[in-house]
Write a structure and sequence with these properties.
Helix content: 10-25%
Shape: globular
Bound molecules: zinc ion
Strand content: 5-15%
Structural class: alpha+beta
Radius of gyration: 13 Å
Number of domains: 1
Largest sheet: 4 strands, antiparallel
Strand order of the largest sheet: 2-1-3-4
Distance between the termini: 40 Å
Order of helices and strands: EEHEEHH
């Protein structure tokens, strides 16, 4: 499994900020190329601000399932509510934070 940085509290990428049963993913940040459990972990450890993935980079592998270690592309992750390999459910509440990690389509020109 790739190394997960930040304030993890177990082997399934839960961290001191988000540690419910469903908090099992880590996200690779475009700005530093490291997996962190959440943006707060990132900001604790990094001096720079988060740069979100751009919409044309959604085929990058940037979401790690902490249960089985499968990496998901951003589009795979956005189109599922569970791991494509082990079927562990992902925390739906994470969607509230997607704009921090992934650039949304809103600004795309017609
Ligand atoms: Zn970074
Ligand atoms: Zn965290
Ligand atoms: Zn999995």
């Amino acid at each position: 499994m790739p190394e997960v940085y930040g304030n993890t509290i177990d082997e399934q990428t839960r961290c001191i900020h988000y540690h419910s049963a469903e908090d099992i993913i880590a996200i690779k940040f475009k700005c530093c190329g490291k997996y962190y459990p959440c943006y707060r972990c990132h900001d604790d450890k990094e001096a720079h601000t988060v740069i979100p993935w751009e919409t044309n980079q959604y085929d990058e592998y940037a979401i790690l399932c902490g249960v089985c270690g499968r990496e998901h592309t951003i589009s795979e992750y956005k189109n599922t509510d569970r791991c494509l390999q082990c079927s562990s459910e992902f925390n739906a509440g994470c969607k509230l934070h997607h704009h921090i990690y992934f650039e949304e389509n809103n600004n795309r020109k017609p």
